[in-house]
């Protein structure tokens, strides 16, 4: 505020502008604090309540044979389920999403197909998650006759992931300067090699960030899984056979039971979910940092 | 290795707009040919038609012939990728690949075209960097990113990258316009030494530069704003700068317009 005081030759900042500056500054800080309140309160609640059951048993046991009012039990089966389902969903959604983005930016440009694809990606972005679940339920389970499985859930999740991945990758690819593509073309490098070895590596960090956001979003989905992987209290390591569990489902299931042991398990599962997403983020940052050349 | 370029009846379009009109000229091997003229007169467009980079822009197309020795670059059986491999290009702004080290930048054209083996690549990289007068400055930090060099060094890195694939012709699109005078001098010296091996075409806004580095100079102009660019005259650089045939050329080089 006092930085302009020692410039007497030019007339100082008028009182009106100083006041406005102050007011806007205060507003920005207030908005920041307001935004922080829910974040901190959520973190605080989840951590303080979740730590009660954040013990080894929770991570090594399932709910098999745990009665309705019993304490103990754990979320091992749910963690396994979430990890497998999200992994499968990523395996489906990331290649399709990134390749779609490559088509849109590098090949499609303003073609009619690109516009149509772009439109449907927008539509998919706004798709309620339960509709993705209903689609898999109707198509995969009812029409084709497969049974509940982690894979069915992964398909529903991949539908939700895809538009996020496409949009993020598209934005990042657009940021790659055209100079680089031309430099590569001028060396007699074919387009596809230019994309693989110049364009994608340049956009790599951004694309990874976008993918992480998509994964984080999908990890907390409950509704589509409810319709596709069903619920189980036993460990099922195979995502292709029989109902599985997932952390959001576990939380939903436990939180609905009228006793403290179950409620505490739900909180611990919520904390586990948050930690899992944070770990994933950390790993992604690390990968991005390793891949990025030191910029000087 | 160096080859002659013969352009005849060349028209280039961006969508419906014609950018250059009916250009015919010959570019001699082992010489430097400079294109000068006011902005928007189609110098760069013409340059980009010579290695088929023009058509990379959506909606752009070319009519006419460009012969590299006897091969028509716009023949139906010619692969534009192969053309670009034979005719290298250096751009206005230095554009090293940001994800690659100095070594990888120079080796990029070879690697991306399937040359393998660190030893063999190393030889070519050293030769190219020496060719671009950059070797002594970077030999101890070949693994550092190319983007960490100064602007002039980056541009010489780009030249090294372009000559690493051993093209027959080297096109330069205002290669010094983003550089300071010392780097410019370095690049001009480099052009003079590359002349022995390559056919060089350079677009420049700097007439002194054209006079300094080129053997032949072509002057381009447009009849009026919005009209396509045309070749006004092309001749020995000395003649263009001392005794041009066309009045427009004289006006331009003496600074009476443009």
Q: What's the short story on this structure?
A:
The complex is a heterodimer of chains A (296) and B (258). Chain A has 296 residues and is an all-alpha fold.
H/E series of chain B, N to C? EEEHEEHEHHHHEHEHEEHH
- Backbone CA Rg of chain B: 18 Å
Number of helices of chain B: 10
The oligomerization state is heterodimer
Helicity range of the residues of chain A? over 70%
Please outline the major beta sheet of chain A. none
The beta-strand count of chain A equals 0
Proportion in helices of chain B: 25-40%
Would you identify the CATH architecture of chain A?
A: Orthogonal Bundle
- Termini separation of chain B comes to 37 Å
What labels describe this entry?
heterodimer, A: 296 residues, mainly alpha, MetI-like fold, 11 helices, 0% strand, globular, B: 258 residues, alpha/beta, Rossmann fold, 6-stranded mixed beta sheet, 4-stranded antiparallel beta sheet, 10 helices, 35% helix
Description:
The complex is a heterodimer of chains A (296) and B (258). Chain A is an all-alpha fold and 296 residues long. Chain A has eleven helices and no strands. Chain A has one domain (59-291): MetI-like fold. Chain A has helices at 15-50, 56-60, 76-108, 112-125, 129-143, 150-175, 178-186, 191-219, 223-228, 247-255, 260-291. In chain A, helix 1 (15-50) packs across helix 11 and helix 10 packs antiparallel against helix 11. The longest helix of chain A is centred in the N-terminal third of the chain and has 36 residues, at 15-50. Chain A is globular and about 75 Å long. Chain B is of the alpha/beta class. Chain B has a domain at 5-94 and 168-253: P-loop containing nucleotide triphosphate hydrolases (Rossmann fold, 3-Layer(aba) Sandwich). Helices cover 35% and strands 26% of the residues of chain B. Chain B is built from ten helices and ten strands. A six-stranded mixed beta sheet of chain B has the order 6-7-8-3-9-10, sandwiched between helices. A four-stranded antiparallel beta sheet of chain B has the order 2-1-4-5, with helices on one face. In chain B, helix 3 (102-111) packs across helix 4 (118-131), helix 3 runs parallel beside helix 6 (151-164) and helix 6 runs parallel beside helix 7 (181-194). Chain B is globular, with a radius of gyration of 18 Å. The A-B interface holds A 109-110, 177, 179-190, 193-194, 197-198, 201-202, 204, 292-296 and B 51, 53, 56, 58, 81-86, 88-89, 91, 93, 95-101, 108-109, 111-113, 144-145, 147-148, 158, 161-162, 165.
